[in-house]
Write a structure and sequence with these properties.
Distance between the termini: 81 Å
Largest sheet: 7 strands, mixed
Number of domains: 3
Order of helices and strands: HHHHEHEHHEHEHEEEHH
Shape: elongated
Number of strands: 7
Strand order of the largest sheet: 1-7-6-5-2-3-4
Radius of gyration: 38 Å
CATH topology of the largest domain: Endonuclease, Chain A
CATH architecture of the largest domain: 2-Layer Sandwich
């Protein structure tokens, strides 16, 4: 490409020199002095120099643009490095280091898989920057991670009635083990409220409740038809509150299947769920059957709907 440009410049120079020589001969046909040749060579040389100067200026502009872009890239890299420095104790540097190793080794399918995982994680981080994120289905990885990150409390409501299928699974075992570790190692308070449709369904939950209480989890069960009317209004959804600052919500579809999971740290959305849990937890406490089989004083008040004992 460079040789072709030089050839073009030389051709232009020869053409200009030839034209000048012919013009000088036409204008001064009676004078056969050497000045015509000198003038044509001089004009051709000037044209050649001008062409090289224009090319040089264009190249300098290109170099300037490249240098400016490099400095801009360096500025972005410096800013990114400063941000990563804040996370030096987290997994970000390790992620960057191993990501570069993955894309330089192994088959193409491994590179593509790594890139998709990085893009997925980047998407989650972008969503979390807005204090909320959502994923299809039930995300057990999020559930486990949030449980391990909790320092104060876990408050959970399960409205899936007698969800024996889940509590007998391996993910449930890991989930409960992580909660037990949080209780024993970090002093986390874990409360779980099961809401069933009818009172006779409570007995099926007894083994589940007994196991969880043995792990240090505070468990209560309440029947929907026992709750005061003002607490039965509105949606009954499954949610978990971590440290009373972030909610983990499971959204069912029309068939009752878990279609999506959302985490939310927006106070205007988390605080109503926290108030809702406290109200239901207190109401369920008033309705727990006493050990001696006699009705508790609070249960009569809650069942009849008189008084405000269920409110917090």
């Amino acid at each position: 490409m460079h040789a072709r440009h030089v050839t073009q410049k030389l051709l232009v120079t020869v053409v200009v020199g030839g034209v000048v020589y012919l013009l000088t001969n036409v204008i001064s046909s009676d004078d056969d002095g050497p000045w015509q040749l000198v003038l044509s060579v001089l004009c051709g040389g000037i044209v050649l120099i001008v062409q090289f100067l224009v090319s040089f200026v264009n190249q300098m502009q290109a170099v300037k643009g490249s240098v400016d872009q490099r400095f801009a890239d360096i500025g972005k890299a410096t800013k990114l490095f400063n941000e990563v420095e804040k996370l030096r104790d987290d997994g970000v540097p390790r992620l960057a280091e191993n990501a570069t190793k993955v894309v330089s080794t192994g088959p193409r399918i491994l590179h593509d898989f790594a890139n998709e995982e990085i893009n997925r994680l980047a998407g989650v981080m972008e969503d979390l920057a807005a204090l909320t994120a959502e994923t299809p289905g039930e995300n057990h990885d999020w559930l486990m991670t949030l449980t391990k990150c909790t320092h104060l409390s876990i408050d959970a409501i399960s409205t899936n009635l007698v969800d024996e299928d889940f509590w007998s699974t391996e993910p449930a075992n890991r989930y409960l083990t992580a909660q037990r570790d949080g209780i024993n190692e970090r002093g986390v308070t874990v409360r779980r409220l099961f809401i069933v449709k009818e009172n006779q369904e409570r007995a099926a939950l007894d083994p589940i409740c007994e196991e969880q209480r043995y792990m240090g989890i505070k468990v209560r069960v309440v029947a929907l038809d026992q709750l005061p009317a003002h607490l039965r209004r509105g949606k009954m959804i499954d949610f978990i509150l971590f440290d009373k600052a972030l909610s983990y919500e499971i959204h069912p579809d029309q068939l009752g299947l878990n279609s999506s999971t959302a985490v939310n740290a927006r106070p205007e959305l988390v605080q109503p769920l926290s108030r809702r849990f406290e109200q239901l937890w207190e109401a369920a406490g008033d309705l727990q059957p006493p050990p001696n089989g006699l009705p508790a004083p609070g249960s009569i008040r809650s069942l009849t709907g008189s008084g405000d004992g269920a409110d917090t």
